[in-house]
């Protein structure tokens, strides 16, 4: 896939993927406003429900295709990044640097969240009477959003669970961190073997990666329809009244996310020595898909293709940084969680000391890095954090109605963060700080 992914219409005009998705995004919002409960052509609930189900069909097919290939793609990409680029030397020079980079940017994101919340004070703009009515029915909503995830594991058990005892189960359960660890171990083991013994396995990984990227290319033809469907459902299901009540809170989160985006552009300009405008232009496809799907994992194949094909990041770097970033680089999520925690403590009249705020920040950083890749689990982990602050877990239900909108926005930040890290590590490779091969690995993923 060189450059923009192009779609031909009958007039032989060519539209880039990002523009197709932007048109679909606007169309989905417009259709949702017109056909939703408060629209000019509002459909009855018993009609709107099946209409929404059918509209969502291409979106579900798109996510199913991407989900089918993302785990083997992550595994093969990391294995090839290690085996074709110097093994332990590359992992030592690049891996340690990028993990430290991720932790530092996550800490900065949390500090941005604390600062934005202090400046905006969103809890002061929500009536207490509305808060009381919302908490009463929120507990069941939180349970539903969690997908049945059971938290509360001890730290030693969490460390043990990083190792995939059953690799097949890790793939089935979409345990991204376990797959990353397994790929790192497999890549190091293959790099340590004589080339004659490891070449057959490496060839399988090269072929599997090519197959996965071909399926991704096919799936992207559904992307504009998926974007339309996601935005249609979001507009239909989100009530205007709730948005009005939480508008200051939503604005606070969006301001924080914008600040993180500004931080990324500064990093691109001063650390990666690239044009921020050119960077944003190259990132459009991945950002649009991240916004519509709300999933860094589902966007990962496009993120990887963008890093290699449009940002000229060498495959050894992209295939290590992007999968690793998809797993542990969650700056947008970390900032969001700290704002939610401070917002809810403000709503319920709980004053946090400086020490409690610092402890909360440290906990949020750890939670953002270690959050499993299961939909809704972030809300459960946030509930555990809030319980330690004396906030009832069901209070999270207050913000559930607008969580989807903010999830879409923070996923854009998370994906942009992965691309930012890729160009930074590429710059380190160019200066010799990271040992990575100059040549491309076998074949690009795009």
Give a verbal description of the structure.
This protein is mainly alpha-helical and 446 residues long. It has one domain (6-431): Proton glutamate symport protein, CATH 1.10.3860.10. It is 74% helix and 1% strand. Strands 1-2 form a two-stranded antiparallel sheet. β1 (6-8) and β2 form a beta hairpin. It is globular and about 70 Å long. The chain starts with 5 loop residues before the first strand and ends in a 15-residue tail after the last helix. Mean pLDDT is 80; it is low at 1-13, 137-151 and 440-446.
What is the strand content?
under 5%
Main β sheet profile: 2 strands, antiparallel
Please write the string of helix (H) and strand (E) elements: EEHHHHHHHHHHHHHHHHHHHHH
Q: How many strands in all?
A: 2
The number of helical elements comes to: 21
Look up the CATH topology: Proton glutamate symport protein
Strand arrangement in the largest pleated sheet: 1-2
Please identify which CATH superfamily we are dealing with.
Sodium:dicarboxylate symporter
Which structural class fits the helix and strand makeup?
mainly alpha
The Cα radius of gyration reads: 22 Å
What's the architecture, going by CATH?
Orthogonal Bundle
- Rough shape? globular
CATH class: Mainly Alpha
Report the end-to-end length measured between terminal Cα atoms: 4 Å
- As residue ranges, the low-confidence spans are 1-13, 137-151, 440-446
Question: Number of folding domains?
Answer: 1
Estimate percent helicity.
over 70%
């Amino acid at each position: 896939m060189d450059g923009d992914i192009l779609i031909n219409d009958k007039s032989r005009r060519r539209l880039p993927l990002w523009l197709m998705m932007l048109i679909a995004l606007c169309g989905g919002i417009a259709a949702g406003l017109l056909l939703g409960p408060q629209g000019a052509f509002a459909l009855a609930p018993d009609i709107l429900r099946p209409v929404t189900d059918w509209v969502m069909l291409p979106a579900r097919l798109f996510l199913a295709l991407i989900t089918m290939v993302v785990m083997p793609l992550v595994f093969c990409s990391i294995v090839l990044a290690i085996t074709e680029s110097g093994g332990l030397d590359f992992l030592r020079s690049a891996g340690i640097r990028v993990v430290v980079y991720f932790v530092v940017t996550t800490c900065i994101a949390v500090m941005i969240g604390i600062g934005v919340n202090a400046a905006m004070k969103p809890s002061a703009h929500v009536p207490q009477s509305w808060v009381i009515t919302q908490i009463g029915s929120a507990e069941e909503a939180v349970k539903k959003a969690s997908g049945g995830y059971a938290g509360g594991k001890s730290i030693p058990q969490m460390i043990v669970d990083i190792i995939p005892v059953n690799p097949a189960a890790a793939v089935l359960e979409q345990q991204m961190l376990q797959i990353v660890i397994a790929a790192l171990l497999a890549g190091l083991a293959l790099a340590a073997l004589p080339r004659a013994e490891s070449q057959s396995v490496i060839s399988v990984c090269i072929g599997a990666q090519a197959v996965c990227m071909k399926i991704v290319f096919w799936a992207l033809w559904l992307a504009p329809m998926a974007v339309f469907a996601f935005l249609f459902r979001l507009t239909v299901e989100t009530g205007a009244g709730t948005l009005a009540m939480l508008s200051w809170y939503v604005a606070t989160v969006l301001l924080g996310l914008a600040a993180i985006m500004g931080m990324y552009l500064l990093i691109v300009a001063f650390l990666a020595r690239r044009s921020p405008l050119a960077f944003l232009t190259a990132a459009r496809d991945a950002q649009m898909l991240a916004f519509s799907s709300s999933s860094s994992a589902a966007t990962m194949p496009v993120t990887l293709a963008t890093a290699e094909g449009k940002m000229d990041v060498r495959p050894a770097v992209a295939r290590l940084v992007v999968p690793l970033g998809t797993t542990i680089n969650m700056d947008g999520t970390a900032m969001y969680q700290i704002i939610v925690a401070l917002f809810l403590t403000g709503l319920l009249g709980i004053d946090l000391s400086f020490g409690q705020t610092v402890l909360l920040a440290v906990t949020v950083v750890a939670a953002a890095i270690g959050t499993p890749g299961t939909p809704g689990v972030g809300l459960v982990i946030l509930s555990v954090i809030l319980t330690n602050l004396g906030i009832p877990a069901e209070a999270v239900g207050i913000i559930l109605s607008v969580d989807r909108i903010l999830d879409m926005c923070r996923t854009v930040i998370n994906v942009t963060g992965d691309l930012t890290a890729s160009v930074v590590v590429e710059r380190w490779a160019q200066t010799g700080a990271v040992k990575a091969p100059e040549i491309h690995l076998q074949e690009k993923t795009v």
